Amino acid sequence: MIPKLHYISQGNSPKEHIENIQKACSAGAELVELRLQNVSEKKYLKLATEAREITSYFQTRLLINNDYKIAKQVKADGVHISKTTVCPIEARKYLYTWQIIGASANTLKNCELLLEKQVDYISLSPFKALETSDIKVLGLNGLTAIIEALKTETPILCAGGIATKDIASILETGVAGIRISSGITQDFDLMRTFNNLLSASSTDEKRHTFE
């Protein structure tokens, strides 16, 4: 079962990414994703090893962004693919059988292609407009339309500018969980708030099941 809350690492330097992963784990993260850009393979491996040591200590799951070879080397729990140049099928051949593969999508067609490639979860984004992205914003209507069309048991997550006030309405779309970066990096105390809001939805689901 995939945790409902994923923390995506953020920082002004690679060192800060690792420090923030430590803070996220201390704050109760069940899963963190090391997401580094513009670093050498050697440096990425070193930092991924550090992230693995931290997450192992806290018994937190670790995903590596895009680099599935490093994910295998450090025995991370899996890889999150955000680049269309990385093929889930190739990653699956390379990884250990117990490692998971998640991937980002923005359209129904993206999702259908990823399901054909048997990913373990799909992350739809962005939920809200982001300064760093010019990709079409999905919003609640976009999420609902894609999830209803897919009719899949594969978990669909959501990412991109999510705040605590958005959780209840996002979960009503059928989304299984959320992936957050800056929303938690700016205040790691919010980790508990997000977890509580997501757990409350689990309680509601169980209550509904037994009634």
What would a concise description of this structure say?
The chain has 211 residues and is α/β, with parallel strands linked by helices.
Counted by DSSP, the helix tally is 9
Uncertain stretches of 5 or more adjacent residues: 203-211
Q: What is the domain total for the residues? A: 1
Give the amount of beta strand, in percent.
15-25%
The computed structural class is alpha/beta
What string gives the helices and strands in order?
Answer: EHEHEHEHEHEHEHEHH
Number of strands: 8
What is the oligomer described by this structure? Answer: single chain
Mean pLDDT: 92
What is the percent of helical residues?
A: 40-55%
CATH architecture: Alpha-Beta Barrel
- What's the CATH superfamily, by name? Aldolase class I
Given this structure, which CATH class is correct? Alpha Beta
Largest sheet: 8 strands, parallel, barrel
CATH structural fold name: TIM Barrel
Euclidean distance between termini CA atoms? 24 Å
Shape: globular
Strand order of the largest sheet: 1-2-3-4-5-6-7-8
Rg value:
16 Å
Give an overview of the whole structure.
This protein has 211 residues and is of the alpha/beta class. 45% of the residues lie in helices and 17% in strands. The chain has nine helices and eight strands. An eight-stranded parallel β-barrel has the order 1-2-3-4-5-6-7-8, surrounded by five helices.
Any key phrases for this structure?
8 strands; alpha/beta; eight-stranded parallel β-barrel; 9 helices; TIM Barrel
